[in-house]
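agent> Task received from the user: take the single chain below, predict its 3D structure, and emit C-alpha cells. No templates, no multimer pairing.
agent> Plan: (1) validate residues, (2) run structure prediction, (3) serialize to C-alpha cells, (4) report one or two observations.
agent> Step 1 OK, no nonstandard residues flagged.
tool_call: predict_structure(input=
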Amino acid sequence: MLVRVLLSTPYPVNSATGVGSFVRSLADELRRQGVNIYLAEPPLDAEPRGIANVLLAIRSLREVLSHRRTIDVIHCQQLHLQSLVVGLAGRLTGAGVVLTVHGRSPTPPALRGLVFRLVEAFCARVPHRLVFVARTLQAEFGPIGSVISNGVATDRIREAMSSRELVRRELHAEDAFVIVYVGRVTSDKGILFLVDAVDAAKDSVKVPISLVLVGPVDDNLAARFAKRAQSTGSFYMTGPTTEPWRYLSAADLFVLPSTREGLPLSLLEAMAASVPVIATDVGDVSELVRSGVTGMLIPPRDAFALAEALRWAISHPDELSAFSRRAENLVVSGYDISTMASRYFHLYEEAIRSVSHPSDASHDGGNTR
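)
tool_result: status=success, residues=369
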C-alpha cells in the first residue's frame, strides 16, 4: 500500500531538539520503507512562541492545502497550534490525522495560559489516532490513545559522530571532563540546576570541567549565559545546530536535568552513542536509566544531588564505562528506529481506514474521544 504522509513539526527537523530529531529520524526511516514524505517545518532558527506560532500554523496550512490531493495522512507533533490547524485541515480534506504527544509544556500566565490549555484540549480531540511517547504522558490524559516508545537509528548516530580529539580541540577542552547536554536550552529543561551543579562540583574535583550546551537557547537565558561563556573557558553554547550528535563524540558524560519529560530522544541517542548518562527521574526516564546499572538517576530540581552525582562520576571512570556499555545494549535491543516506524505505519493505515469508515475511529490504540 503506497502511503503519502505529511509530517508537521513546530521545531526544525535539523535542530538539536527532541521533536526535530524524532521527525528527521522517522522521515528517513519511512522513506527507506517506501513511504512518500512531505514536511511542514519552521526555519532552523525559529522559536515556537507568540506570533511565530501563528505564522507557522499559516505556513503549514498552506502546505497541507497545496498537497491536499497527494496526502493520505498528516502526522502532527505536540499539542500545538500548528497541530490543531493542520489536523483540522486534514480532516476537512479527507486525510487521516495522527498526533504524537512528546511532552507537556509549562503553562504561560494569565490569558495566554487559558488560550494555551484550550489549544491543547482541542488538539487532543482532532486526530484519528493519538499517540504518546511515554506511559506517564498517557496517564495525564486518561484512557485514550496509545503509547509508542521513541526509537533511534544507532548506526546513523555512530556515523554522524566525529573524532573525539578533533571536537575536544575545537572546544578547547582537551584535558577537561566534558559534560554535554543536547536539546532546547530552557528553564523547564533544568539548565539552571545543571549550571549550579557544575559550579558546585568543579571546586572539589581535580580535573577541569567543561559544560557544553547543544541546541537553541531561550531568549531569557541567552544574555545571562553569553556573559558567562565570555568570562570562562569552560562553558560553551552551540546555539541552533544541524550536527548535535557530533558533540557526543567529545563527551565524558551526558546530563539531562529536565523538570519534565516523556521518553527523551536525546537521552536515547546519548545511550546509543555509548556516552554515560545522568538524568532526572521524570516521565518514563526510569525505564531507560536504572540507577547504578545503565546510568545515574537523580531527583529533578535538585542541584545538590546533581553536583554529588557529578563528583562521583568524575572519580569513577570504570563504573561509568560499565554503565555506558549496558545502556547501549539496552537501546540497541529495545528502542530500534525501524520498529518504531513500522508501528507508526500501522497507525497511518488505521487512520486512512477511519476516514472511509468513521466507526473505526475508536479502534484499539486510537483516540477514543
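agent> Step 4: summary for the user.
Residues 362-369 have pLDDT under 50 and may be disordered.
agent> Done.
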